[in-house]
# Entry
Amino acid sequence: MALSPLDDFPVHQAAQVMRHVTTGDRNFYDRYYFNCHAASDELMLIVGLGQYPNLGVTDAFACLRTRDLHRVVRASRELGADRMDTRVGPFRVEVIEGLKRLRVVLEPNEHGLSFDLTWEGTIPAVLEPRHFLRWQERVVFDSVRLAQTGRWSGNIRIGEDEEIPVTSDRWMGTRDRSWGIRPVGEPEPPGIQAKNSGTFYWLYTPMRFDDHAILCIIQEDERGRRLLEEAVRVWSDGREEEYLGRPEYRPVYAPGTRDVVEATITFAPPGGKPFDVRCTPLLPVHLMVGTGYGLEQEWRHGMYQGADPVVQGVTHRLPDDAARMWGLVDAVGRFEYDGLVGHGLYEYWALGPHPSFTD
# Structure
């Protein structure tokens, strides 16, 4: 065991040095996720940075989507002993004030995207329900996550000439921090896991309104059984979260596809009046393309890229490369209910069999 600077803080949870986690599972991870947009279809920026202590790797990505561009910058290095060091090539995340303000930076590089952005939460950070899934006897998900809506300030630079000022009166987004176990790193031999249905029916919608947010999660299996859910209203002034009951989700797909064009989520607060939220995805971002979430076998979160740090760029033009856009969608979302209009993240995937599909 080796010490690191974090061991000088009174934060230990086990008789281990802080660089070691309490499980030997190779799939343990610890990750930041952020998105940034102007509540429109003009631009969405998504940033992630993760550490994988049992794989000895840390990596990061930024994905920029405009109407005609899907650009990714990604970086990886060996994790080393100091888990307080979030630098990965030109990326870094700085916690200015825990659970409230953070700085996210991608230094200028040769791949045509950089930024220096400061995040400020607009609601208290919320701890979501624990995500636990066992497939064919093996625990494949066992993680917790905090979520928060907020606003951004700073700047984004695209290519050599375009600089976008980001001001907190217009630019907003959501973020999460998750840690625990989920599939990461190099692909493993599937073994009996090959018998799984391959279903991933998922909805995640953190929505920001003027004085509150609504956080909703729905995950179901191939039989339509609910595996994970959340439905809470969180007030910006710190009032107690309001439980909104079991959320019911009704998406409308583009003909012949599983691309959502609109959806309705119904909430039924216990003892209160049910209400519908109308959801409209404004700008879809195919999050898995180039970022490490599993589509490319040569670049996956936690995959060892060698002893030397690596920085890469991936660019696709739309609509020319539309056929490459597949998998989980993170869209800028517009949300409406009871005369209120909000914006946030509309994240969904409808993979594999599910009772709602006839295709």
In short: The chain has a mean pLDDT of 96. Residues 9 and 18 are 9 Å apart (CA to CA). The radius of gyration is 20 Å.
